[in-house]
Fold this protein.
Amino acid sequence: MPDMSASASLAMTHLVTLAKEVDEDKVTPGVLGFIVFAVMALAVWGLMKSMNRHMGRVDFDEAPDGAGASGKGDADQASGKASPAKG
């Protein structure tokens, strides 16, 4: 197995020379900023996926217009259930 310290040393010398070319007065978000942004993006994606799954489980059947005239609304009010507003 080849010695990895030589290649690691060579890579570090190239990275150090690149780091010295960066303007020290310039502020950049860096790796930490990217990691925070990526975590937030994954969290939003997960929340949207969960919301879509939960919205798909909602079973909403709208009552036809004729059902309100049959007196069903009075029975719902007596039992304490709320009926949707018309109009």
